[in-house]
Amino acid sequence: MGLAVCCLMCDAPDDAGSSRCKGCISKHEKVRERLARGDDGVSRWGQELLAMMANPQRYDHDGVHGAVLQGYVRLLSDHEGPRAAPTQEEIDALFAAAKARPKGSLIRDMANRSPWKNAPPSPQVARAMSEDMAEVGEVDVGKRTVPSREIESVDRSDRSGEDAALTDRVAANVATQDAPEELKDDLIDDLMAKSKAKRDKLSDAVEGLDDLLDD
Q1: The model scores a pTM over 0.85
Q2: Alpha-carbon span 10 to 21, nearest angstrom
Q3: Any idea what DSSP says for residue 85?
Q4: Residue 15 lies in a domain
């Protein structure tokens, strides 16, 4: 009945099948059926208490009934008696059983259950499946924000780490470190001019893309 604690606390003789035991078991059945049918606050409270009594070891941390439930756990443990330690043969048998258990893959096992794992569904079946699927409604992804006033460009040349000319000069110095001294200055100027031209071309392309998006 899941209410072994009641039997352990009973003062009746421990005679299996006695009239008193049958009466208690009958009342236990009626209580469980009554609580299972009810859906009010009292029934839910009774179901909670019944669950605690049936499995006190799961609720012995309860703030209200914890101490009582711990006593129930001790009663059950004393009644069952001390458990013998597992033998080496039993441990070896457990490891052997675990090793023999098939180690499958959840994804592969699910895929193997598919009726179309060996061949795709027929066009008729695929069409019927698509008809059962709910249609996807239109999703409003919004639109590009158009500012109400013109946003002035920001001069970032004086910001640390954003001096493009300084970056170009450093890169040119690195690229020409093995060049002859009499040609180094001309090569540096040429590389910086090419870097600036490439950057200006990229900037024009970005601005053209912004204008296209605005239109």
Answers
A1: no
A2: 10
A3: P
A4: yes
- Count of domains for the chain: 2
pLDDT, one tens digit per residue, over 127-142 is 777 777 766 666 666 6
Q: Which domain holds residue 20?
A: 4-80
CB atoms within 10 A of CB 190: 13
Q: What is the pLDDT of residues 153-171, one digit of tens each?
A: 776 655 555 567 777 778 8
202 lies in a domain? Answer: yes
CB atoms within 10 A of CB 109: 10
Does the residue 152 lie in any domain?
no
Q: At residue 200, does pLDDT exceed 50?
A: yes
* Other residues' Cβ atoms within 10 Å of the Cβ of residue 74: 12
Is residue 105 helix, strand or coil?
coil
Q: How far apart are CA 43 and CA 137, in angstroms?
A: 45
